[in-house]
Amino acid sequence: VLQSLSILVVGMAVVAVLVGAVLVFFLAPFLPRLPFVLGDLVEVNGITGHVESISSFHTTIRKFDGTVVFIPNALMMGSRIANYSTEPRRRIEIALGTDPRIDPAESMRAVLALMEADTRVLEEPAPSAYIVGASAGGVEIRAYAWTRNSDWFKTCSDLWAGILEATRNDDQFAFALARFIRDPVGRGRRL
After folding, report:
1. In this model, does residue 25 exceed pLDDT 80?
2. Is the pLDDT of residue 73 over 80?
């Protein structure tokens, strides 16, 4: 009797394992997955950092200041998740406000020259600038450039630093920006 019982238990265990494997095999494609892997740079619920670990219950994100945040996966599944690591390149967007008395084309040329002078800015797609709004208070310009994902933070910071350098001694941003040109060696200088 004991032998029959143990054969029955072993048989049931084998059947349970097979049924479980079949269910996992066929149902796995339909189970929700988190849209990132270890090491990805993500933003979830206003928290930005690198994915440090993923368990069945929570995901660990290390923020740039070193803080470790544990977010329950149930909350992750219901949240907007931005994954900055999935693409090899990333777009930089710079929004500028200029004085309405200045020719916006000059301002756009100055920003584009600054972007083109930076070797980390990709040639394709080429940097671009557009007027996106205008009022009595000023003209709004948006400039776009692409860089490698790994260079995004530093390139974005350096482009802003270049714009600020171009405007350092002037009261009105647009006047300095309009006078900013690209010199032959690819560094900005003022007239």
Report:
1. no
2. yes
